[in-house]
Task: structure prediction
Amino acid sequence: MSLKEKINTATIPQHIAIIMDGNGRWAKKQGKNRVFGHKNGVKSVREVSEACAELGVKHLTLYAFSTENWNRPKLEVFALMELLVFTIGSETKTLMKNNIRLKTIGDTSKMPEKVQRELNKLKEATKNNTRMDLVLALNYSGRQELVNAVKKIAEDVKKGKIEANNITENDINRNLYTAEIPEPELMIRTSGELRLSNFLLWQSAYTELYFTEEFWPEFNRESLYKALVQFQSRERRFGKTSEQLEK
Result:
């Protein structure tokens, strides 16, 4: 039986988040520069996005560029921005063919104008697609997202729209970038690193974490199927006991 055949399509996670790590190290192993790794990582994005859509995943969030990534060498950041513009412009047909809608989270206003322009064009072109949302986290920081949410809530308290003592988790949720997206059920990180790296910190409170030694350019459909098979073997208790879940 193949890995894909082992997947229970009735319990496919509705939201998968992926930390796409290891492009640079993979390129180094090939004797190439880091940008070569990022270019090959685009192939994995395409393959995994199509596989998720086919399986029935409704939301796929990819950690594409963090606020910390601005601290990388200037030439690498410039190359990443150029690659991002090129990739966005060339993926319209793929997204339309697969009925996938593009969304973004993060402060994209800080991205170069040509990146913003291409993003807006592709979001407009795919806005009526319904099969799956592909969410790119760009200039994203989980901590900054929470700071922004707190500021918005504080402003509502100041205006008398809400009492401080009445603030709930829902108030925080509705002020996050992901207000219209369900919490991820599965988070995948490639390259063997074992941390969240400031990604979806609030949203991942009960997310199942899956780590693989594969570098992102090596991650493919079979890699995704393996992660899903393991995910479906786990018991998600949300603080309850196994006996309570059986009732």
